[in-house]
Amino acid sequence: MGYSEVVLQVLQARTPCSINSDSYFYQSNPMLSFKTCVSCLRRTSYVYEGMRNYSRIRRSRVKINAVRDMSCKCRRVESVSGSTADDGNGRWILGEPNVSTHVLNNGLPKSANLHNHEVVQHLKHEKGHLKSKSPAGGTVHDTLHKAKAESIEKEAWNLLRQSIVYYCANPVGTIAANDPIDSCILNYDQVFIRDFVPSGIAFLLKGDYDIVRNFILHTLQLQSWEKTMDCHSPGQGLMPASFKVRTIPLEGDDSATEDVLDPDFGEAAIGRVAPVDSGLWWIILLRAYGKCSGDLSVQERVDVQTGIKMILKLCLADGFDMFPTLLVTDGSCMIDRRMGIHGHPLEIQALFYSALLCAREMLAPEDGSADLLQALNNRLVALSFHIREYYWIEMRKLNEIYRYKTEEYSYDAVNKFNIYPDQIPHWLVEWMPDKGGYLIGNLQPAHMDFRFFSLGNLWSIVSSLATVDQSHAILDLIEAKWADLVADMPFKICYPALEDQEWRITTGSDPKNT
Hints:
Layout: H1 3-11, H2 21-26, H3 43-58, H4 64-68, E1 84-86, E2 92-94, H5 110-132, H6 140-162, E3 164-167, E4 170-174, E5 191-192, H7 193-206, H8 210-223, E6 242-250, E7 253-264, H9 278-293, H10 302-315, H11 346-362, H12 370-390, E8 392-394, H13 395-402, H14 426-431, E9 437-439, E10 442-444, E11 447-449, E12 452-453, H15 454-462, H16 468-480, H17 482-485, E13 494-495, H18 500-507
Antiparallel strand pairs: 1-2, 3-4, 5-6, 6-7, 8-9, 10-11, 12-13
């Protein structure tokens, strides 16, 4: 706290309090306010005492540097400019900065009043002068906050680099988790496709392109591996959920070793669920690598082009579904555990749409890919319409669902999915703000999952799957419901959380899914 703030608190009849330098940097407001007041009976004496304190501090300029780094732990001072006036109830109120409006009920002489106004104005000038001399043109608070942020970022980068996995002395990814306390590692010491994507984007922004390039090419080699479970093989083009680098003795020479990649396509995973999102994330990261590094030679390689086509053919294959969305099983994305998202979860549809856009941009124009591009374009149009029209929920749409007719049999039915209004949960009616909306978590016949899934909604904004108006509405809802969706922790994966019997039925009583 600067010496001018000390004087202003005396003029405002602030009681002495303990001093703490740390609270200044992270709690105090650098501007001043005159919201607090003194009683009418004691105001004259406080002003007079303030004059004396001001004169004393003016003579002790050498103590400025020591006082400036301190902060009062009591009431925060808010930013308001202007002089003060009495509202008749013993409180000071704001007035124009160039007019002395402070009138004391106990008859303080006008000269003292003018002198007090000059003191206040001078202190404001002194405070602004001190702030202007702070490092880099900012306040001490800004400088310390920036230093703390840089320290946290440096620590994060150190932890991230410690998690790097090497294959033949080359970085190929980062492990999913590195907890030295946890003795039960399971498969968290492996490189997961989806988990490496945020790490890969961080490396790209840092200019470390090699690790991302190696990751893309080595996972592509795993795509063509033969994978079976109980004598059944999934479709060609499936990307592994994760892989592990194993060091084994070289055949014929026990003294030498070699590194091998051991992929997991779900045959060893908990729940034995094949990953649906791995191939979609791989395509998205491939395009991000080309955009950030400028190296388009990777995506133009024949094997990479073949890998893209195999993933697209697997996703665009004809099936029994009548909808343009991808039909997936529960636990095939996100946390690989049951979350009640079997069917057409929003997260997969947003990733699917984004991967289709990226693939369309990277596919080389040739005769063999013409039919694939046509199918890709048709799916993009149908998918975007389906999500924007049927997944969107806001207060107006909520009122429409309440008026839905059920059991409609016609080509022109309004309630196409036969949604019963009783499905609308009680929490949604009270939680939905008047301004804002979001894309629901899942949609299938006679079922709408009204939970808010953060990744699906945010990625819909990033990929332009949501319209411009819908994107703004989603952000408005996040801002309005910040206490529920963020509060004092990172963004919640899903809101609201399942409880009691509903949690047991939906997750299979999985203790890790809490």
